[in-house]
Amino acid sequence: PNTATAKKNVLLMSSMHRQPTVTDNGKPDIIMFYNETKAGVDTFDQMCVQYSCSRKTNMWPLCLFFGIINAAIVNSFIIYRENIEKARPGNSIKRRMYMREVALQLIRPLAEERMNAPTQHRQVKLIINQVCFLNPSTTGAAGPSAAEMKERMVRCSLCPSKADKKTRFRCHACRQPVCPQHYFPICSDCVR
């Protein structure tokens, strides 16, 4: 290539192109072939960057790990989409939702283990419950739905009395009144 400062030689090796032929526009045939077929690599890189799990870090093994995870997610999504389109056309989900489901499936075993640990902090259990939609194994029966609740309206036991939030909802474990903001199948005090 001709640069502003000097002309540099570029060496190209290919097991496909045996003769050094030059096309009409002055570029070697090997360069033209590369330019025609590189779209797959560019599309793959664009898909990896669009939804990436990478985080800023100074540790190169972690960067490598993030790159492997991004590549694995894109590849598995392509396989998933092709399989779904063959089985049930038009039923595939968006890649962002696919990534979310894969992430939840990967963290669910550890989340269940931490959720059922007796020494785990209550706030951590609440966060796990919100992210993974898990309930501790001590919850027991599901309890009645909101439409079936015949309880009288009382103040939420977790809200400040100044808020004066009245509710029919009850914790399924301890039966304390809780407003919809604090309502899970069990109240936040029983998540232990």
TrEMBL record:
Coiled coil spans: none
Record-given protein name: Transposase
Keyword annotations for this protein, in alphabetical order, are: Membrane, Transmembrane, Transmembrane helix
**Bilayer-crossing regions:** 59-80
Q: Could you tell me the superkingdom of the organism this chain comes from?
A: Eukaryota
Claim: Amino-acid biosynthesis is one of the keywords in the record: no
Which InterPro entries does the record associate with it?
PGBD (IPR029526)
The PiggyBac transposable element-derived protein domain sits at 8-77
